[in-house]
Amino acid sequence: MSLPVFVHNIVVPGFGRGSKQLDCPTANVAAIEHLSIPTGIYCGLVQLLIKDESQLQEEEGHRQTYDDMLNSLPYQSPVKPMVCSFGYNPQFGNDKRSLEVHILDRLNFNFYAAELRVVICKKMRDEQKYGSLEELKNAITNDIIQANKDVKQFAMLSSNASYFLPPSASTIDKLH
Ligand code: ADP
Ligand code: RBF
Ligand code: MG
């Protein structure tokens, strides 16, 4: 299947390793069994949709951001750049594939059960098993730098109405 590929689904819990072990939270996307792209690390664009309070969780130390978000529901984020991993996480030997999206922005809240609209634009590399966690973290840091550059060429897709919905106007200024 040729890129870009569009995925719209809810955020589900994973093993909790992204934030804790890799300093890189990844929103795991549900129901990707039929996604027919090769496994690997990709970059692209993402929009976060939060309909109600049950889809929003406070992050410790960021009460104000959480309260601001509550006041802005239902929330449709601006379209943001993302890096994602699609596959078996060979570093950790998962037995099922996952699609894990790291939004290239510091959000300061959690959004389990919210929805993501993801446009996977470009493959950056294959998944790898590194000699140590530090090496994987360095690789992810480089992916993020590279993705911020690569995604620029896909910026025009941000206004494509078949992928993304208009952001909620009231929240844009508060969160940027
Ligand atoms: P899990 O294993 O449950 O996916 P992670 O440690 O990978 O846990 O953290 C992912 C969660 O962190 C996401 O589901 C989301 O609620 C939250 N999160 C906060 N900021 C971001 C971000 N910039 N990108 C992706 N997820 C984020
Ligand atoms: N997992 C791997 O096993 N090998 C990788 O090369 C790898 N690269 C990644 C690159 C990026 C940009 C991201 C966001 C994740 C990557 N992962 C990789 C997935 C990572 O192991 C996973 O997100 C965490 O284990 C949390 O589930
Ligand atoms: Mg994750």
Strand content: 25-35%
pLDDT below 50 for ≥5 consecutive residues: which ranges? none
Number of strands: 9
Average of the residue pLDDT scores? 94
Give a written overview of the molecule:
The chain contains four helices and nine strands; from the N terminus they run βαβββαβββββαα. The protein has helices at residues 17-22, 63-71, 133-150, 169-175, and strands spanning 5-12, 27-29, 40-50, 57-58, 75-76, 80-87, 98-103, 109-110, 115-125. The structure holds adenosine-5'-diphosphate (ADP), riboflavin and magnesium ion (MG). Adenosine-5'-diphosphate binds next to helix 1, strand 2 and strand 7. Riboflavin (RBF) binds next to helix 1, strand 6, strand 7 and helix 3.
Entry summary:
This protein is of the alpha+beta class and 176 residues long.
Please name the defining characteristics of this protein.
globular; binds magnesium ion; two-stranded antiparallel sheet; 176 residues; binds adenosine-5'-diphosphate; 30% strand; alpha+beta; binds riboflavin
Layout of SSEs?
Elements lengths: L4 E8 L4 H6 L4 E3 L10 E11 L6 E2 L4 H9 L3 E2 L3 E8 L10 E6 L5 E2 L4 E11 L7 H18 L18 H7 L1
Bound molecules: adenosine-5'-diphosphate (ADP), riboflavin and magnesium ion.
